[in-house]
Write a structure and sequence with these properties.
Elements (H helix, E strand, L loop, with lengths): L1 H5 L4 H22 L1 H8 L13 H29 L1 H7 L1 H13 L3 H29 L5 H22 L7 H6 L2 H10 L5 H6 L3 H11 L10 H18 L12 H19 L2 H6 L1 H7 L6 H26 L1 H27 L10 H15 L5 H8 L5 H29 L1 H23 L17
Length: 462
């Protein structure tokens, strides 16, 4: 699959998305930041002059990212709708610069709260703009694979943070991360606006040139019949979309709309209530409480690397195997792995001698993140545009992404408190139960969308 990207046909799509994912990887660093840093902030060695933070403050450090994410999703949806995907992308580094500046200069927990809020603005923008940018420029044959890169780059940032967060000085990481937005702005500035956005503005010639760029067609003489068909389909789709009346309530009540919105909300709920994002946020604390005999610092690196391995597995097979099977395997595997983690935690809390099984929590968490990365944390970000009716694709994606951030707030805010009150086993068993219910829903209600043409109207949406 990687060799396909290096082929003449696809390499510009891959290079454009790789440039965009500089900010995605930077956001991944902020996602992973609490895992090594919260244990530090709660310890006597905290860099904050006021002393160690409380469990309640730690939960707010995790949750304020989700508040920013909710606002960022809506804000960037408005930006890319009215000004285009490229403008939306170029604004992503602004909150990123603010958040790391606050971490660098902050001397109390309120600086951290605000930094996490601005981190959420960036994350909301990534969730809102990047999947639609990919859907706009990607060839349908590799759209799923290119969509998988979003989570891969988030987890590249996560691995960086898990690997270095316990070894670099508290204020060294923000100094490093302030460099990333510069490279992002320089590279993305050279990318053309997406063909669909240009067509919506009536710029037909520029739209054709943009599609030629992303299909690596150098001039008029090298246009292929396949390219001409694709551009005609895109032009017909966008022009017919533009000629329609404004959205009405009736547009949301068609069977296709109800099914698409249900699937969008479901996959985003599964993404969060499976507990994976909360586990990534509080992995350091979980390892401290799980009774593992492995160094928690090394365990963080192990699970982060296996998380990326899961992403790479999805990346290589998603356009061959399909979305539904990966989502099904992922939900079943995560549920089972969390059940095992909960069982170990329960027996340990009950006083059983688990000598010789100190490795089990690391294995269970590693399998949770590996199997989650195959589907639960990956598929939702690009399946949503594929299941929505064309007229509702933008608003449906925004609704789903906004709810994702709200679900994330609930999980990230409650997880550390639940781990204190009902222990690790009670907390992860709830997430395991969510996955069990999800398996049934996936089997009976989630369609396969592999290879779906997003530029062709469905009958029910005409």
């Amino acid at each position: 699959m990687f060799l396909e990207f290096l082929s003449r046909r696809y390499w510009k799509q891959f290079s454009a998305i790789a440039a965009v994912h500089i900010i995605t990887a930077s956001y991944g660093v902020t996602v992973g930041w609490p895992a090594p840093i919260i244990p530090l902030l709660r310890s006597p060695e905290t860099p904050l002059p006021a002393g160690p933070i409380t469990v309640e403050q730690a939960s707010w450090i995790g949750a304020t990212l989700c508040i920013g994410g909710t606002i960022g999703t809506i804000l960037f949806a408005l930006v890319h709708t009215y000004f285009g995907k490229k403008v939306g992308l170029l604004l992503l580094p602004v909150p990123h610069l603010i958040l790391w500046t606050l971490i660098l200069i902050g001397d109390n927990v309120w600086y951290i709260y605000w930094a996490r809020f601005f981190s959420g603005l960036t994350g909301g923008g990534v969730v809102s703009v990047v999947p639609l940018y990919i859907a706009d420029i990607a060839d349908k044959k590799i759209r799923g694979t290119l969509g998988s890169l979003t989570i891969i780059f988030i987890n590249i940032g996560l691995v960086f943070m898990y690997s270095t967060g316990n070894y670099l000085a508290y204020r060294t990481i923000p100094k490093i991360m302030l460099v990333a937005p510069v490279a992002f702005i320089v590279l993305v500035s050279f990318l053309p606006e997406t063909p669909a956005c240009l067509l919506r503005k009536g710029k037909l010639l520029e739209a054709e040139r943009s599609l030629m760029y992303y299909r690596n067609i150098s001039d008029e003489r090298h246009k292929t019949p396949e390219f001409l068909v694709e551009f005609d389909e895109l032009k017909t789709f966008v022009l017919s979309e533009s000629s329609k009346a404004r959205l009405r309530w009736a547009d949301f009540t068609t069977p296709e709309a109800k099914r698409g919105l249900f699937i969008g909300i479901f996959v985003m709920a599964l993404n969060q209530f499976s507990g994976i994002f909360a586990i990534l946020t509080y992995a350091g604390t979980i390892f401290q409480k799980s009774g593992t005999g492995i160094d928690p610092h090394a365990a963080l690196i192990i699970v982060a690397v296996l998380n990326i391995c899961g992403n790479l597995t999805s990346f290589t097979v998603i356009d061959r195997v399909g979305r539904k099977i990966l989502l099904l395997v992922s939900a079943a595997g995560v549920g089972l792995s969390l059940g095992v983690l909960g069982a170990h935690s329960y027996l340990l809390t009950a006083g059983y001698d688990l000598a010789g099984l100190e490795w089990l929590p690391v294995l269970a968490l590693s399998m949770t993140l590996f199997l989650g990365a195959i589907g639960i944390t990956n598929v939702p970000f690009f399946i949503v545009p594929e299941v929505m009716p064309p007229k509702l694709r933008s608003i449906g994606s925004t609704i789903s992404a906004t709810l994702l951030c709200m679900f994330a707030f609930v999980c990230v805010k409650l997880y550390p408190i639940m781990m204190e009150t009902i222990h690790i086993y009670g907390t992860v068993w709830i997430s395991s139960g969510v996955c069990a219910v999800a398996v049934v829903i996936i089997i009976f209600w989630i369609p396969e969308t592999k290879g779906k043409n997003l530029n062709v109207q469905s009958e029910s949406s005409k």
